Amino acid sequence: MSQQGSAGNVIAAIASFFIPGLGQLVQGRVLAALLFFVFIGAGYAMWFFIIPGIVGVLLHIWCIVDAATYKS
Q: pLDDT at residue 49 above 50?
């Protein structure tokens, strides 16, 4: 990937919007992708407790921003 705001980062951010961690995986950051996917998935899976659901949403937003602003 090039620099912040490049087409690759925009594609990664869009991918992370639909599947948490996919944008990081596209950028080649496997550990970050796995951690985002697991923690956001766990937060969404426990939505009925409300607080983990809110944490999941916040982590998902962080995941998208992280993919969009990544500098290699």
A: yes
